[in-house]
Design goal:
The protein has about 600 residues and is α+β, with helices and mostly antiparallel strands. Among the domains are: about 40 residues, no CATH class; about 220 residues, no CATH class. The protein contains 18 helices and 16 strands.
Amino acid sequence: MKSGSLSRIYFLIGLMVLVVLPAIALISSCQTAAPTATAVPPPATPIPPTLTVPPPTLPPSTVVPPTPPPTTAPVPSGSKGKPLTMFMNPDFTGSGTCAVCHTRLTDPSGNDVSIDLHWRSAMMANAAHDPVYLAKVSSEIVRAPALKQVIETKCSLCHMPMAFTEAQVAGSPIAIFDDGFLNPANPLREAALDGVSCNVCHQVEKDNLGTAESFSGGFVINTSTEPPDRKSYGPFPEPFEDTMRRSVGFTPTPGLQTLSASLCAACHTLYTPYLDASGKVAGQFPEQTAFLEWQHSSYHDIGMTCQKCHMPDAAGDVLISNAPKPPRINPRAPFGQHYFVGGNVFMVRLHQNYVDELELTCSAAHLEGTLQRTLAQLQNRTLALSIEEAALSGDTLSVRLKLDSMVGHKFPTGIPLRRAWIHLVVVDGKGEVAFESGQPGPDGSIIGCDADSDATLYEPHFDLITSPDQVQIYESIMVDSEAKVTYTLLRGQTYVKDNRLLPAGFDKVTAGKDFAVAGAAASDPNFDRGSDQVSYRVNVKGHSGPFTVKAQVLFQSLSYRSTLDLARDDTEAVKTYIVQHNNTDQTPDVIASAEATVK
């Protein structure tokens, strides 16, 4: 228990005057205002299926029972969500208290760049609401019940960091389910549901960032200070201190760690324990290594940090708080917009459908802004696709594609359940399909993918494709201690395949073992340093030209097989997610396309 009752009373009085009373009027307006989203081109439409192929048939041991009818329908698109929370704990305060002053911000052109407007519908804000996260945690517990406490501790640290830290300091139980943080009676529930909130990133100390000690949630927050001396770090020098000290009990402090990739690395470089065949912990598994991949790329060399891509600067100077008024504070630049934009389109769409059920503190309109920014990130700033060769010789059509990554880490990134792939179609002069590889199925499967028809298999990496049942899929595939394919994170010992597209400058020969290329891509001379070239040799006998070659790169946040694997567990979190999954558009996202005609 902390001391300092007088200072806490002092700051609570300031909070009432400067925050709570203005917030009464503000919260209502925040909920009804729609975000101002920058217009982006409509998402490209996947090449429609042209072959009538039945969905893959699973072996009897892996067939998932038919999904029960939905227990709840998606909420109307106009759902407004809940207001931001304004809880006050010894070391943290809710995002709603920060939003009182850091909303209604504009750039010189009048565009709304409010911090709360953008953050509240991002995955960072909804880290604890994410139904895939909750389903996956519950699944891992069912499969390794003896490690329940280890799992919930590891998985709450970065998804519910405020609740985790407060429980750790107080010596209280750290748990997610049952009587844990999600229980309505748990005093830390609001802190848990506020996700990766303002008070988390802006309180992280710089001391161990970028070191192995800081990975897997090893960031440091100073919990020994009392209000108003608790430090809130930001990127600007000489911050105005008085308002925050009196209203929320924090002292704004210059801290360049807020601009460093090492800050993000604390949670986005994740090692998890893995179990051997007997169920004993046998070592650590590099589940996510985006920071290490970035360090090994040209992006690190030129200083292109995570923030510069995922929190793009506003155009011009921004008055970063609506209180006090100039000249006591002045506009600042560069101001990183709190987009936290990624590539998980599927989850944003799911959130739009279930704003109320998931207790989100954003509206469907806020989520639409995040959706459009996410689509723009995927379609404009992820990769370039070109047809380098398309030639006909006799009955053989030769095509060579080149993919150039524009991402500062491997793509796809994050949890090893995502995938991107090439969908290539050759159409003859009569409009008939002469060849097709990578056709997406309506259920989220990929026609021809070995993993989607057999849980024990995976699709290998290809340099040359000659058959429709060969598909170039960029993904990471885990195997357990017995070298069997697994989708259970606690069983993942290593990667049997990791041909995710590399960032520019990434030397696969010198890459560390925790983030190395795995499988056939390691020896593919056309797969290296940010690009991949894939050749196709197509037999077009019986077809006449001219031939049209259509190529797309498609992306899926969660693979078909990983979803089937998750659905095997009968937890409430899994059942809830599967219903929501089945009610959400599963069309893969098109991130690049190219077309050529061969006469």
